[in-house]
Amino acid sequence: MKLSRREALHGMMAMGAMAGLTRASWGQSQTGDPVWQAFEAAKRDHPEALGLSTQPSAGRAGQARLIEGRWPEDVQGVLFRNGPGCFDRDHWRYRHWFDGDGFIQRWQVGPQGVEHKGVFVQTQKWQEEEAAGRFLRPSFGSLPPGDLGLGSTTDMNVANTSVMMAGSQLWALWEGGAPWALDPHTLSTQGEVNLGEGLGGVPFSAHPKIDPKTGDIWNFGQDPMGARLILWRLGADGAVKSVRILEGVPAGMIHDFMITERYLVFIIGGPWMSDLRLPFLESFAGDQSRPMRAIRVDKNDLSDRKDWDLPPGCVFHFGGAWEEGDGAIVCDAALYKDAGFVLGGAYDLMRGDFSGARNSHSCLTRIELRPQGRVDLSAYEDCAFEFPQIDPRCVGQKRRYSWGVAQIDLDRALSGGLARRDLETGALALLDMGAERIMEEPLFIPKGAGEGEGYLIATALNTKTQVSELHLFDAQALGQGPIAISALDYATSLGFHGTWQDS
Amino acid sequence: MLKLTLTGLIALTIAHGILAPESEAVSEGSNLTLTIEGVETLEGKVMIALFNSEAGYDGGDLYEAVQVRAYDHQVQYQFSHLDPGQYALKIFHDVDGDGELDTNLMGIPSEPVVFSNNAPMRFGPASWNDAQFEIVAGENTHSVRF
Fold first, then answer.
1. ipTM for this prediction
2. How far apart are the C-alpha atoms of A464 and A487, rounded to whole Å?
3. Domains detected in chain B
4. B76: chain A residues, CB-CB within 8 Å
5. Residue A57 forms part of a structural domain
6. Which range of residues forms the domain containing residue A398?
7. How many domains does chain A have?
8. Chunked in runs of 10, what are the mean pLDDT values of chain B (146 residues)?
9. Residues 29-88 (B) with a CB less than 8 A from some CB of A
10. In terms of Cα–Cα distance, which of A454, A449, A439 is closest to A407?
11. What residue in A sits closest to B133 (Cα-Cα)?
């Protein structure tokens, strides 16, 4: 049968060939993907690139070798971490660090030493794209050529931001969709978690808070189009206890939140949503004049709400919050003056630009939200500080300390030290792990009885030896340096957040 | 414009995807044989809306709506007596048979949805520009996949 040109076109469209045409014309390009090429070129001179390189599809496994100190007998358990691990397919590279598919890393510490395993969360997106050999879906910050669009949050869920235990499951968390469940021993993917009727694919963010008194898990999901939050309360087993909606929440960036005994506390900063478009991040703009917003609501009565305006800024992470006797809420946040990292620096990294030239630096900032409406901010400007962590026994309670990653060299996007800030005296304990190490989020392992008694466990990328390492510190004596360091014989991708589980 | 006459809720199952013999074709106007693949469960109905204008597609009047029982993982339906021109389809699988497109708390469909040309959704229905296709005089075929 001979087709007219019109019929032929019709037939091709019906077969979905328009996407293929776009891709074919891409493939014929003489120059290729400039982002992919720039990163490949940068790899030669920048070992930091190891942390932003695509991991093997089949994952990684290996034994870490003790290179310094020794592991104490009372540290036995598993550190789970999550972060983006697939950045390019078919010689086309994601534009933004937050796009990459979730790669779960499992560091087991015990009598057998330190064992490492890394696997991709087998999300629907990852499986489809692995089969196709190219990216198919719009991601947070990128629009791959010939994309197939989005029908649901599942289509773009990369499950790449954090992990939490829910009963016997390990959940890989993202913030634009539902958790993905894995077996915590084998890391095999069990499927997307459906928390109930009408709740499939509904956002469950990556910074759940566990109430140390009840064991309940509090979390939120953002619906920026609806200017509202979904508020989740789960039991320790992961079963939903309640789902409620908080309306009237400005559509800015909400990555983390806080709980106190009585309240949920949100601080929303830039970038702010303007027009919905794809890739999703391009819906947001850094409005440097718009105030940040703080909201506290009663856990049991959302009508008991108070809002505060704060100076313009940007925030990913909080240490935590508590209530003072006079009704004030006190909290600490890693505050940026603008959204330079999310709207600039996180793109630059993907091109292999590690200068951090477009980043502003976050300073841990003590914030007091007063009941009469006043807000007091005091920034600790002597140290660039991110990934704040606290003693988990103190979540929601008055406490003294925050630990985190300290940026030692402000002329490099990724650099590494650790710090502890005393929120009562302002004192800083700082540990510089050397220019060759990129330190990652330190997690607190409680020991003893008092706040701060315990260890810090943290992963690092050693750019000199080009391997990944696991470090242990005395949380109260950072200055003494690591108690133990074990090193793999390979480098894995950098991650964002994790959780520690005692054996 | 020809007045639309439908062949009713008769879904044509044609072996091996080959079109019906010409003798069975309707002689007047254009026909469209629509094939919907990827029907996951054989429950409920496949709901099909045909539009012949951008205004209609973007929330105005639909041109014709039909329901087809989800009798197989691939279902077909024939529209008859259409005027040649630009058309677009919105289709969903009403798995629970309640006549509604079920959504989650966010308003995102929780039942399968597809548009003509398998046009991509981008935080909402596919656009008319992406979903429109031409119906010419005589026989036409169109396939989509959930």
1. 0.74
2. 12
3. 26-145 (2.60.40.10)
4. none
5. yes
6. 31-502
7. 1
8. 28 30 56 97 96 95 95 96 97 95 90 95 90 97 97
9. none
10. A439
11. A10
